[in-house]
Amino acid sequence: MLTIEHLRKSFGGVAAINDVSLHFEPGSLTAVIGPNGAGKTTFFNLITGAYRPDAGRVVLGGEDIAGLPAPVIMRRGMGRAFQVASIFSSLTVRESILGAVNAHRRDYAQLLRRFPLARAQSHADEVMELVGLSARAHVLSGNLSHGDQKLLDIALALALEPRVLLLDEPTAGMGSEERWQMIETVHQLWARKQITLIFIEHDMDIVFKYAQTIRVLSYGKVLAEGTAEQVRRNPAVIEAYLGAHFEGRAA
Amino acid sequence: MIRSALGRDLLFAVGGLILLAALPLVFPGKAFADFVIRLSAFAIYATSLNLLIGYGGLVSFGHGLFYGLGAYSFALLMQKAGTSIPLAFALTILINGAVAAVIGAICIRLKEIYFSFLTLAFQMLLHSLIIAWTSVTGGDQGLTGGVPRPPFLGIRLDDPRHLYFFCCAVLVVSLFIMRHLVQSPFGYTLRMIRDNPRRAAFLGIHVWRIRLLAFVVAGIFGGVGGMLISLFVSSAYPDFAYWTVSGEGVFMILLGGMGVFLGPLAGAGILLLLNDLVTRLTEHYSLVLGIVILAFALGLRKGVLGFLKDWWTKRAAGTKGRQSAATPAA
After folding, report:
1. Domain extents for chain B?
2. Mind giving me the DSSP string for B268-284?
3. Beta-carbon separation of A114 and B192 below 8 A
């Protein structure tokens, strides 16, 4: 589904991503972990078109999308949510999602019809139901709680019906209980939609419980990859990121 | 629901037109008719600027360019080419659209203040061109010889009553079209881009295309405002393309409120009233205007209609709250 080959990106001579090659199976649920500054968000930025790679290929469904602009990559079947919820503050939840559906269906520049388009409504309602925002459909996005803003950010990406969904720290800034609720919602929508889901996460309990496979980045390189068990026991990962206390917490 | 929203706007437009048509019965003087004609020109112009500022988050300091371009294009077409009024209207729209497309393609790639300054630079370029190209534009004296107003479809614009009704009709039709545009999927995409252009791009939206489209639409309607003023004064002057016209557009939006569609119309009315009343009382018009604008900027940031809308919303919410408190839970 998604294959990254020898991806490189430097900023001012510092290699942020250094010869990264990874493969993500269709319908897989993968966590990308690593210490701060490992290049996780840069990795997302490179494969979604926010940055242009210096070298390498990003192959989505057989097509190299490396270096294409973000809107074009989104049209190829990618969806993305951000570490800090990226929403439309002055629009309601429903208007925002309808706008995203219009974008997905290329109706966003329609001049002759009225908003909302009838053909967008059922899909928008389905997306709101999927993330549990139906009850807050008419609330201004800027007035939502932090957790709901994160859900809306994910809902916007889901409105694009992506083949690959990238979530940059979906639980960032949340309390313990809220974090587990959020990841459970993410897990359920992954199970229902059967999309390839890749998420960056710092909470190792969440990562080890939910991720089918884990990719560890450190200093812009792939340090390790494998199942939770393999990663948890990997001495290089323990030394660079997890710390010795995780060794004894193997399931 | 969709049809009713469009129908409501249409009803509102027809009602507005009937009201404007009836007003001369109450205010029969020429001064009132002249005021409404000037208001029509400025209201279309300010509303078109608000498509950029209020809906698109694009603060243009040079929108007066299109007002001046519309006035000169129309007046020159009528005067030099001898075209009919409908043809001159259509050609002016095409000229404004084409110029807006070229200038917009350059400007909208820049962010915030750089965008604002570049639009201002283009406006000053047009102003300089008008001053310098004396053989065509009449230079700083403006176009002399008047703008012919040949009759068309039974409409005789050299008759003040016909001119009044014509300007009212153009105002209502222009506002109706712009209202429809901001309520279309394009209008909502424009709001999305205003709020968060990066997020919009990550939804597959080509941000610059939407901004360019908004710039062209605003340029066209800015030109329609210019055409009306050119018809009214039967000429075109370099002042129409001067930077102060852009400033006045921003003031109108500020006074009326950028968050309400009819805010710029209200702002245009307030500014023209201020102009007409204050200049009668004192020669220090600019000082009074400055104080009024300062008062709005400090105390009434959402403009008159924005303030009234907030007040109405709070009042309605309060009434609803009281009603639900009085109704026992089912």
Report:
1. 13-323
2. HHHHHHHHHHHHHH-S-
3. no
- The answer to whether the CB of B278 falls within 8 A of the CB of B288 is yes
Q: Given an 8 Å threshold on Cβ–Cβ distance, is B205 in contact with A108?
A: yes
CB B13 within 8 A of CB B208: no
**pLDDT tens across B207-252, in order?**
999 999 999 999 999 999 999 999 999 999 999 999 999 999 999 9
Give the CATH number of domain A2-246: 3.40.50.300
Give me the residues of B, 276-305, that contact A with CB < 8 A.
none
pLDDT digit string, tens, across residues A145-195: 999 999 999 999 999 999 999 999 999 888 888 899 999 999 999 999 889
Q: Where are the domains of chain A?
A: 2-246
Exposed/middle/buried for B253, CB within 10 Å: 0-12, 13-18, 19+?
Answer: buried
Task: Please state, in angstroms and as integers, the Cα–Cα distance from residue B195 to each residue in A23, A96, B127, B141, B306, following that order.
Answer: 35, 11, 33, 44, 19
User: Span B13-323: which CATH code?
Assistant: 1.10.3470
Which of B180, B191, B210 faces A109 most closely, judged by CB atoms?
Answer: B210
Give the pLDDT score at A234: 87
Which among A224, A222, A225, A231 is positioned nearest to A250, based on CA atoms?
Answer: A231
For testing contact with chain B, the best of A47, A75, A76, A114 (most B CBs within 10 A): A114
User: pLDDT band at residue B329, thresholds of 50, 70 and 90?
Assistant: very low
Q: Does residue B3 surpass a pLDDT of 70?
A: no
Name residue B207's amino acid.
Answer: V
CB contact under 8 A, A156 and B199: yes
Query: What's the pLDDT tens digit per position in B146-177?
Result: 899 999 999 999 999 999 999 999 999 999 99
